[in-house]
Amino acid sequence: MAGKKSSRVIDTFSFDKNRRDSEGSFVNENGLKIFCRYWSIDVSSPRALVFICHGAGEHVGPYTQLAEMLTKENFFVFGHDHQGHGQSEGSRVHIDDLRHYCRDIFAHIDRIKQDFPTLPVFIIGHSMGGAVTILSGLDRPDYFQGVVLIGPVVTSDQDQIGPIKAFFGKIIARLIPQFPVLNLESKYLSRDPKVVEDYENDKLNYLGACKAKWTLCIYHAVLEIESKLSTIEWPFLCMHGECDSLVKCEGSMALYEKAASKDKTLTIYPKAYHQLHLEIEPDGSKARQQIVDWLVNHVPQK
């Protein structure tokens, strides 16, 4: 059932107190080992928990710069590589149901909450991770104190997952679920050529074409999200690059316009591309700082 708390627990959960960061893992309900990353482990009394939900094809490692900014503000920041991504097990960027990602997020956070039961929980979701984050918030609307979305996939009017491709995708997904159907060009991730170069040289990133079943799962997810935008009431910050050609900013605009949230912010960065948190300066720094400031301002006052 969507949003159901997993019976699985963290399989390997150890911190090296002599390091600023640590690694761990858990086994999800598909029997796959999920790689976890933790920052700020030396914080004995953090102000809040922040989970980072990365996008398609990437992994949680490149979010270290943002995570370390948050640790300086006394947040406990953590995340994991989604099933089939990075150092986690599973067929590369293949899934049977997008909510398997949501399920693993709740299993992971619930385990951390055992050690910090009274702390508020925030989530940061980028791109596909934004869609996963929104689904998670729809399934458990009172779970997160606040949500941050960076270039999220919100609506189905994306060039990559339009109705025609989805129609053919249904046929291919049923017959050959891992058939490559969609290429995402990394040159459109950021205007910073070093960011693009690092992405392409990172062996933990998946640079192949998106697969039929995965694409269909995304399509079904955004159709659901579109139909439920008006039910969203949780506080959120949504950020999008004006020139993001991988995920259109119109979806973020629709979220802002239709969500019932009383506390909502949308920022469109002029001329910016997809990975706002890794954009050229000064936009990259501005985006990261906006995230930090928003989270700091949304921690409940004791």
TrEMBL record:
It comes from Plakobranchus ocellatus. It comes from the Eukaryota. This is Monoglyceride lipase. InterPro entries: AB_hydrolase_1, AB_hydrolase_fold, Hydrolase_4, MAG_DAG_Lipase. SUPFAM superfamilies: alpha/beta-Hydrolases. Gene3D superfamilies: alpha/beta hydrolase. Residues 45-280 form the Serine aminopeptidase S33 domain. Coiled coil: none annotated.
